[in-house]
Amino acid sequence: MQFRSTLMYAGLLMSTSFTASAHDFWLAPGKYQVAPSSTVPIQFKVGHNDSADDWNLRWDKIVALRNYTPVGVADLSASIIQKSDLLPGAAKTQSLESGTYVIGLESYHSVSELSADPFNSYIEEEGLTEIHDYRQQKGLTGRAGTELYSRKAKTIIQVGDKLTENATHPIGHTLEIIPVSHPYDLNEQAALPLQVLFKGRPLEGALVKTSALKGANHKAQSVKTDAEGRATVSFSEEGPVKLSVVWGEPLSGNPRADFETYFSSLTFSVNKSAN
């Protein structure tokens, strides 16, 4: 009986870990900093940073893939190559001239269901206070949790030396991490102030996490946003980094799920030597 309980507990831990990693999603450009007149391939990653896999990129998952340039918005849909047995799934920018470019992806909804304990652990780990409080108030903590979730991801690419202000402007994602200062012009402490917006408004109490991507050794951080949706992260190392945030709210009268959850990420590369 004790052996069976141990197996069940191990299975619970594996389920919780797998769910968290499956939700982790980001855009990975071939290079974050390139010379003018370059095109940049974009890959779509899911999982943990040290065991990332290629996202199952399909047309029925994509709402939009756009390039927010210094002078406007360019659609990247025509460059999308779906994932297949031979190819991982990717896209490519147009030829980019000097300036800063923000690539943004929005996905359609998917449905996820977890039994009570893994779901409670997941909402606690991600700081989903609205969902947590709702389940507490309604006496639902012993029930499975079903969520309708979607992904919003951005990556910032710097072309040449010309830094442009579009890097610090929102692009209109439902949940979005916005650098308040330019991420390729960090101060001596490599501190980056940021703001999280949810449905266009500052989001208080959101848990923003940072983690190193392949080729970097950034220390992982977790910071909560204040009443203005603001927080600051800092970096002691160079190389690519991912910022992520999750937020959700109860759904009313939806037969598919109890909650709607949004996953948002931002990637760029820290280059302190350029400061």
Q: Number of helical runs?
A: 3
Helix percent reads: 10-25%
Give the helices and strands as they follow along the chain: HEEEEEEEEEHHEEEEEEEEE
**What is the total tally of β strands?**
18
Low-confidence stretches: 1-21
Roughly how many Å is the radius of gyration? 19 Å
C-alpha termini separation: 61 Å
What is the oligomeric state here? single chain
How much beta, percentage-wise? 35-45%
Question: What general form does the structure show?
Answer: globular
Number of domains: 1
Pfam families: DUF4198
Protein name: DUF4198 domain-containing protein
Organism: Salinimonas profundi
Keywords: Signal
Task: Please give the structural blueprint.
Layout: H1 2-23, E1 25-29, E2 33-34, E3 41-46, E4 53-54, E5 62-68, E6 73-75, E7 90-92, E8 99-107, E9 110-114, H2 116-125, H3 129-137, E10 145-159, E11 175-179, E12 191-198, E13 201-202, E14 207-212, E15 221-224, E16 230-234, E17 239-250, E18 259-270
Helix pairs in contact: 1-2
Quick structural summary:
With 275 residues, this protein is mainly beta. The protein has helices at 2-23, 116-125, 129-137; strands spanning 25-29, 33-34, 41-46, 53-54, 62-68, 73-75, 90-92, 99-107, 110-114, 145-159, 175-179, 191-198, 201-202, 207-212, 221-224, 230-234, 239-250, 259-270. Mean pLDDT is 90; it is low at 1-21.
Defining key terms:
mainly beta, 10-stranded mixed sheet, 4-stranded antiparallel sheet, disordered N terminus, DUF4198, DUF4198 domain-containing protein, signal
